[in-house]
Amino acid sequence: MRTLAVTGGIGSGKSYVVRMFAALGVPVYDADARTKGLYASDPGLLSELKTLIGDAVVRDGVLDRQYMASRIFADKELLSRVEAAVFPRVLHDFRRWKEACEIARCGDGVSSGFVIMESAIYLEKPALAGTADRVLTVICPLETRVRRVMLRSAMTRKQVLERMANQCDDAVRTALSDFTIISDFEHPLLPQVWEAYSRMNSLTI
């Protein structure tokens, strides 16, 4: 089975597009959610994070993600060391998950010829490079993205723009991608999703 990485900036509509693929029978690996799961299920990872960041990063056996974020985003070297501890475990988890999907497909439990890795940072992190056979980026005009994020969160416009400034630019993502889906309420989504879905399935033949 092939792998399609689906990425996009905050408010781009990436998660909605991924749900459309899921409705077509494509298994989806949510990298962010699975990473949070590893924080809760991998004692070795917690131990390594305590060594890197300090004992305060774990409270009552649970990772304090807010504290970790406050430390790593203020220290790029520490961020790199934390990512070096986390990413190999995420990739191992993804490979095991994909193997399970392949077994299910052999038993006709999965209809799609490919799986999706959903990751907002796929194109920004060299450790993830090469995991996917193809990359799809979801893009959207800036103002629409800002409105979407403000409607679903307590973030101010300034906070949303600051978050966007720390993310990869859409032009860069698009240049590095095999597919681009425009999620702006003007370009119908289903035909765009269907085209990428069909092309990905044709790769497995």
Account of the protein in words:
With 205 residues, the chain is α/β, with parallel strands linked by helices. The protein has 2 domains: 1-27 and 110-205, P-loop containing nucleotide triphosphate hydrolases (Rossmann fold), CATH 3.40.50; 33-109, no CATH class. The chain is built from 9 helices and 7 strands, in the order βαβααββααββαααβα. Strand 3 and strand 4 (62-63) form a beta hairpin. The radius of gyration is 18 Å and the shape is globular. 25% of the residues are buried. The model has no long low-confidence stretch (mean pLDDT 90).
Features:
five-stranded parallel beta sheet; two-stranded antiparallel sheet; 7 strands; 205 residues; single chain; 54% helix
In brief:
This protein is of the alpha/beta class and 205 residues long. It has nine helices and seven strands. The protein has a five-stranded parallel β-sheet, with helices on both faces. The protein has a two-stranded antiparallel ribbon with strand order 3-4.
